[in-house]
Design a protein that fits this description.
Elements (H helix, E strand, L loop, with lengths): L1 H16 L4 H19 L2 H12 L7 H16 L3 H12 L6 H17 L3 H13 L5 H17 L3 H14 L4 H13 L3 H12 L5 H14 L2 E4 L2 E5 L6 E6 L7 E6 L5 E2 L2 H8 L4 E10 L5 E14 L2 E11 L9 E3 L6 E6 L4 E6 L5
Parallel strand pairs: 4-9, 5-8
Antiparallel strand pairs: 1-2, 2-11, 3-4, 3-7, 6-7, 7-8, 10-11
Helix pairs in contact: 1-4, 2-3, 2-4, 3-4, 4-5, 4-6, 5-6, 6-7, 6-8, 7-8, 8-9, 8-10, 9-10, 10-11, 10-12, 11-12
Length: 361
């Protein structure tokens, strides 16, 4: 819906400021042809239509910026990222570009930065977009939502949550912002809030991008029974398997990355504090562990009396907590801590089958 709204805005600009006479109608016809080709997925032909329109416009005029931005999107969608970047840079450098077109251009440049691994540059562009003064509340909302996604990529979950809250305040009908906020809640281990926001996002007539974000939440939280002591859990597109652990039968669920290649389980100190309120926890001494990046850390080992993988009882599990602050911690479930279960991977169905032994050790 936002893309359509911006499109209508751009068409209005073209009509109000295109060259006079036959050239005016020709520019508009070429621009609309390009838009139609974009919807059909004919990105290279769309580029040609927009380029033809640009040949009839003043190179640094308001309408030229609108068409250059449209062509940059076509270049982007056809995979020609360098040409897309060149077009958006032309707009950003202009002294005559209007506020809304500049904002939309910064959105696209931030996306290009992200696709090339330049997260900090993307963050800078979205912060600049937020600072631009204009009256388009939907576009302002989208600026905060896009920056929220970047904060998620940088593991700055509280910052992301703040931006999504602002996006929803500006546009309460933004399914995209609700889906983003759901992801932020998921990363913050607030499972119920994550699920609730995904449901709201899907109730807001979502576009494909919103559906994809919401699906990240709903797919991760879905689980099916494949027997009295077996579960099937989806494997993410990135190959990760996330599961929910509880530390009392009716306690709140906590999000863990299930790593069949990891020996021990690792949790944050904040989660340890919560677990201690739910079940019996005993210190089991010190240990030195090596993380995936090759660094070594001192940890304190803890024996947790009760754990449940979804609703499967695991009995006692061992978890480790860094003695020193190591930044953002993803709760990690290693196989040594869950010796009472086995995990098999079904690549065809993209599911992990988790089976508990008949008796607990």
């Amino acid at each position: 819906m936002r893309y359509i709204a911006i499109l209508i805005f751009c068409v209005t600009l073209l009509v109000s400021g295109a060259p006079a006479g036959g050239a005016e109608s020709q520019v508009l016809r070429l621009y609309e042809k390009g838009n139609s080709l974009m919807k059909e997925g004919n990105f290279k032909e769309a580029v040609q239509a927009y380029s033809s329109a640009l040949n009839l416009l003043e190179p640094d005029g308001k309408n030229a910026h609108v068409v250059i931005l449209a062509r940059a999107r076509a270049y982007h969608d056809s995979g020609e990222l360098e040409r897309a970047f060149k077009d958006v840079s032309t707009i950003v450098k202009s002294d005559t570009v209007d506020a809304e077109t500049l904002t939309s251009t910064l959105h696209l440049r931030a996306r290009l930065h992200l696709q090339q691994g330049r997260d900090q540059q993307a963050l800078s562009d979205m912060t600049s977009a937020i600072k631009i003064s204009h009256e388009n509340q939907s576009l302002r909302s989208l600026s905060f939502a896009h920056r929220g996604i970047i904060f998620l990529n940088l593991n700055r979950y509280e910052n992301a949550l703040s931006d999504f809250n602002k996006a929803i305040e500006l546009d309460p009908n933004s399914g995209y912002a609700y889906a983003g906020r759901g992801l932020a809640y998921l990363r913050l281990d607030k499972i119920d809030a994550a699920r609730r926001n995904a449901e709201i996002a899907l109730s807001k007539h979502p576009d494909d991008k919103t559906k994809k974000l919401a699906a990240k939440i709903t797919n991760e939280l879905s689980v099916s029974s494949s027997g009295p002591l077996s579960l099937a859990v989806p494997i993410g597109d990135d190959g990760h398997i996330f599961v929910l652990l509880k530390f009392s039968k009716n306690g709140p669920p906590h999000r863990f990355l299930l790593d069949t290649g990891a020996t021990f389980s690792l949790i944050s100190r904040e989660l340890l504090t919560q677990i201690q309120q739910e079940t019996e926890v005993k210190s089991a001494g010190k240990a030195r562990v090596k993380t995936a990046d090759g660094s070594e850390h001192m940890v304190t080992r803890y024996k947790v009396k009760n754990a449940f993988l979804f609703n499967l009882p695991l009995g006692e599990v061992e978890v480790h907590v860094f003695d020193k602050n190591a930044g953002v911690i993803t709760n990690l479930l290693g196989m040594h801590s869950i010796k009472n279960i086995s995990v098999s991977i079904d690549a065809q169905s993209k599911k992990a089958h988790i089976t508990r032994k008949q008796s607990l050790d």
